[in-house]
Amino acid sequence: MTVRRFEVLFVSILKTVAGDRVQWFRAEAEMQRWREEWEFKQADFMRTISTFQRMSSVWGELGTVSSAPGSIAYSKKQSAMYQEMERHAKELFSKAGYSHLTDGKILADYICEERAKEEYVIAELSITEVRAYTPLQ
Fold first, then answer.
1. What total of structural domains would you count in the chain?
2. Do the domain assignments include residue 133?
3. pLDDT one-digit tens code per residue, 81-110
4. For residues 45 and 93, is the Cβ–Cβ distance under 8 A?
5. Is residue 42 part of a domain?
6. DSSP readout, 95-119?
7. How far is 36 from 42, CA to CA, in rounded Å?
8. Does residue 84 fall inside a structural domain?
9. Tens digits of per-residue pLDDT, 30-74?
10. Pick from 22, 27, 79, 129: most CB atoms within 10 A?
11. Phi-psi bin for 116: left (phi > 0), alpha (psi -120 to 50), beta?
12. pLDDT in the model for residue 74
């Protein structure tokens, strides 16, 4: 093999390795964005359930404060509606496999535990060190 062919082959290999590294880092970044979006969806669902609980409680309290029969009936109706929405949301969350989050567990703690699991850790990219190349004269 001539020196020139060796140089061309070596440069080609370097470009391939560099391209693979760029592709790997882009894939890693995409995976991290997907994981973050997944965590946002869980947080949104938990906030929705919490909002339904709070609205049910507020409407229930309004029913005890009011003296007009129509207001009491309306507030009880609204409270029951939000209770049903909360129940349905918890049911859907449980069917999706997240029932452990509806038991009052803090989402940040759950996310830290999930991120620490071995199956979620990305193996480091192992590329051998390439030393500076000086062409032969």
1. 1
2. no
3. 999 999 999 999 889 888 777 777 787 888
4. yes
5. yes
6. HTT-GGGTTS--HHHHHHHHHHSGG
7. 10
8. yes
9. 888 888 898 888 889 889 999 999 999 999 999 888 888 888 999
10. 79
11. alpha
12. 94
Count the Cβ atoms, other than its own, within 10 Å of residue 93. 19
- Compute how many other C-beta atoms are within 10 angstroms of the C-beta atom of residue 101: 20
Q: Is the pLDDT of residue 135 over 90?
A: no
Res. 128 pLDDT band, cuts 50 70 90:
very low
Looking up tokens 């069917």, which residue turns up? 95
Say how far apart CA 59 and CA 36 lie, in whole Å.
34
Q: Which residue's entry shows tokens 């390439």?
A: 130
Q: Which pTM does this prediction carry?
A: 0.65
Cα distance between residue 104 and residue 77, in whole Å: 26
Residue 18, domain extent: 3-120
